[in-house]
Design brief:
Helix content: 55-70%
Distance between the termini: 14 Å
Order of helices and strands: HHHHHHH
CATH superfamily: Globins
Largest sheet: none
Number of strands: 0
CATH architecture: Orthogonal Bundle
Number of helices: 7
Radius of gyration: 13 Å
Structural class: mainly alpha
Shape: globular
């Protein structure tokens, strides 16, 4: 992914506020839907730290630059790899453009 594509993806997703909403929706669905119970069991009882790690990862991955705690791939793996349905549902629920979200899973 080029630097230009990453910045464009961040903007297409909707920036900081939408990225927070996306991460919150992802983990809310994980907590609410029984179909994601196996994935939920792989996380600690409190999702607060997981939410922050995923937000930081996706911020960096989509092109937003911040100074504290550089993103690491393992934090984003929870979003992109274990369950594409959860990622896709989170994006659909928040009306994230399919082109913007295409790199997430």
């Amino acid at each position: 992914m080029s630097e230009h594509d990453a910045i464009r993806m961040y903007d297409l997703v909707g920036g900081d506020e939408k990225l927070h909403e996306l991460v919150d929706r992802f983990y809310d669905l994980m907590d609410l839907e029984t179909g994601f119970a196996e994935l939920r069991a792989m996380h600690p009882p409190s999702l607060e730290i997981s939410r922050e790690k995923l937000y930081r990862f996706l911020s960096g991955w989509t092109g937003f630059v911040y100074t504290a705690l550089r993103p690491r791939f393992s934090a984003g793996a929870a979003f992109a790899l274990p369950d594409r349905n959860l990622s896709a549902r989170s994006m659909a629920d928040l009306h994230v453009d399919g082109d913007a979200g295409s790199g997430f899973g």
